[in-house]
């Protein structure tokens, strides 16, 4: 991406707020476009990984790489101290990508406004898990939206929307990795519009809103009594994290990748019953069947079905169950 030629870009005081990997391309794109933030706000350092080594967030690492020295890591974004820190920066624009819910004292500090990047085509899928829910519902299209923050979460006026397709077998992780780059383009385009004074926002139609609430463990249990397409969508919508799971002979099995098994669609069997277990693993659903391609036994690494079948005696008639 070439550097911005906008005359006002170097004078813009931009504060960037974000934490996970999803936000990194947006920060990178802003810097590349000539909109280097004067400060970055991210989560506190935490112990991460198997070794529990104290480390910074992906956004902190990116800020250091871009030589952004002013890094703020609040424990509590609702504290008066944090609000004072942001106000003291005199921000023109605050950019929020995958960060926490902010109080008005913080998002109201930006002279030109605070906008957020959301992983859906708002007002669809307001909430914490828009990518997961779009795929679990079998949508063939999703996208990103930039919008101005206001008190009610994900309800502010829309600035830009960018659409993208979802393939039949694509997982949430794969959509996430494509979406974060589409989102980065939308973030830079939004800042450019703000700098040029060319914004034309659109109020969201609340009657079209749908939810995308946070996903909990109970939401990840596979119900093989559902139609094969619903089972397939749920598995890929939760892959790789938090991961859909079931139980086979009392052992928990996480399932990461499947496809519809059309050749076995008319087999009569109970939901969860294994139909074939040779080089592939075909499982009956309430209607139709799916082929499991990648899975993980409790305490072991993720593996292909072929590797799983080489190390486990699985026979037709065995059944995946809910407990």
Describe the structure.
It is a single chain. The protein has helices at residues 24-32, 58-65, 80-88, 104-107, 130-136, 172-196, 228-237, 305-311, and strands at residues 14-18, 39-41, 46-48, 53-55, 71-72, 93-97, 113-118, 141-148, 158-165, 244-248, 251-260, 274-277, 281-284, 289-297, 303-304, 320-321. Helix content is 24%, strand content 24%. Helix 1 runs parallel beside helix 6 and helix 5 packs antiparallel against helix 7 (228-237). It has 323 residues and is an alpha+beta fold. It has two domains: 9-208, Formyl transferase, N-terminal domain (Rossmann fold, 3-Layer(aba) Sandwich), CATH 3.40.50; 217-321, Formyl transferase, C-terminal domain (Methionyl-tRNA Fmet Formyltransferase, Chain A, domain 2, Roll), CATH 3.10.25.10. It starts with 13 loop residues before the first strand and ends with a strand. It is built from eight helices and 16 strands. A seven-stranded mixed beta sheet has the order 5-2-1-6-7-8-9. Strands 10, 11, 12, 13, 14, 15 and 16 form a seven-stranded antiparallel beta sheet that branches. A two-stranded antiparallel ribbon has the order 3-4.
């Amino acid at each position: 991406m070439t550097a911005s030629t906008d005359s006002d870009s170097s004078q813009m005081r931009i504060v960037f707020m974000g934490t996970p990997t999803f936000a990194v391309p947006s920060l990178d794109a802003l810097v590349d476009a000539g909109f280097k933030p004067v400060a970055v706000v991210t989560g506190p350092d935490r112990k991460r990984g198997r070794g529990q080594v104290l480390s910074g967030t992906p956004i902190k690492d990116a800020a250091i790489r871009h030589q952004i020295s002013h890094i703020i890591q609040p424990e509590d974004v609702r504290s008066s101290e944090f609000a004072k820190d942001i106000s003291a920066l005199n921000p023109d624009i605050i950019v929020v990508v995958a960060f926490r819910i902010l109080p008005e004292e913080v998002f109201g500090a930006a002279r030109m406004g605070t906008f957020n990047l959301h992983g859906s085509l708002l007002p669809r899928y307001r909430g914490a898990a828009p990518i997961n829910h779009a795929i679990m519902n079998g949508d063939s299209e999703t996208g990103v939206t930039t919008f101005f923050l206001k008190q009610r979460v994900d309800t502010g006026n829309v600035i830009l929307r960018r659409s993208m397709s979802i393939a039949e077998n694509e997982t949430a992780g794969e959509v996430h990795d494509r979406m974060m780059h589409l989102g980065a383009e939308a973030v830079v385009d939004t800042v450019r519009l703000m700098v040029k004074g060319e914004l034309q926002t659109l109020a969201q139609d609340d009657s079209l809103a749908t939810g995308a609430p946070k996903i909990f463990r109970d939401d990840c249990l596979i119900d093989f009594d559902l139609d094969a397409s619903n089972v397939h969508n749920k598995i890929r919508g939760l892959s790789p994290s938090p991961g859909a799971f079931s139980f086979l002979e009392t052992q928990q099995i996480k399932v990461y990748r499947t496809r519809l098994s059309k050749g076995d669609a008319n087999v009569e069997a109970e939901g969860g019953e294994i139909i074939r277990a040779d080089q592939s693993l075909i499982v009956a659903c309430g209607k139709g069947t799916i082929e499991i391609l990648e899975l993980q036994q409790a305490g072991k690494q993720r593996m292909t079905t072929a590797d799983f079948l080489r190390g486990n005696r699985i026979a037709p008639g065995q059944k995946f169950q809910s407990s």
